[in-house]
Request: fold
Amino acid sequence: MGLLDYFRATQPIPGSATVAKERLQILVAHDRAARGCPSYLPQLQTEILAVIRKYIDIDMNAVTVSYEQSDAHEVLELNIILPDSPTPLR
Amino acid sequence: MAKIIVITSGKGGVGKTTTSASLAMGLAQKGKRTVVIDFDVGLRNLDLIMGCERRVVYDFVNVINNEASLSQALIRDKRCDLLYVLPASQTRDKDALTKEGVARVLEELSANYDFVICDSPAGIEHGATMAMYFADDAVVVTNPEVSSVRDSDRMLGILSSKSRRAEMNEEPIREFLLLTRYDPARVQNGEMLSVDDVQEILALKLLGIIPESKAVLTASNSGTPVILDRESDAGQAYSDMVARYLGDEVPHRFLHTEKKGFLSRLFGG
Reply:
């Protein structure tokens, strides 16, 4: 950067590359996790949630479905967070 | 048996065709019998970059549909005897490239050439899938910019799951990174992702870094692959890339800005 640049009105925002890198790292990790998952997973999640909500009032985000692939087997993990004092709906 | 190389990226406008043209020319000049195929059906451009657009009679789809033979459709480069171009057709029928048809053409070429370079269209649709399906090696062209890096990563996922080698459980496609439109000055100012940043995310073998260069536009204006402009930084970077691809140990250049003199330093020239 030239000496006179210090007196110029417009200065580039320093370190925007750092922001880019951080955003990419998160994004790519997320993309990679979703890769190889069966395409029915999101729908499975909403349907399971619908069934549970018939009985217990739980949050929309309380169900997580994850899918892992190892050499010999595949794991479909279902995690439901129930409220502290479940209020039965019926 | 020819080696099939796909030039891919996901994102458009990053330099796939420029790279295809220069890699093909570089390999041919090193004595390799090379053919470069334009897979961008409907939007052919490789013939323009190669400077043979007025010599196109038959195209890739004609050969697939048995309307022309391969030798009728192939265009021999006027600057290098060992280099041939197979242009894409301008048909709007996206499904003109059948898997069987592409397989047949590649097999026929495979017998007579050392390298077949497949210039992929942008995106992840049919043309792009066909370009990479039969590949042995892949050059992933990436700009140091968020959307390009992300798309490249997605492309890597597709290469490792939807290719012939993946489906047949064969040894996976060898993947290489080519970083294009690199601006060392902006990297130094922290405005652009550096080679190391991109490498940290994509973790590929780095085949080359092509600096942002006026020579690329000048070369495309005249239909000359930029590798033939030996005076230019981009031309030299592409030559290095070809040598590296063929197994030479060539250090990466154009990573840093040229040292400035006192006056230009003072006035920021």
Observations:
- The helical segments of chain A are 16-34, 41-53.
- Chain A has a mean pLDDT of 75.
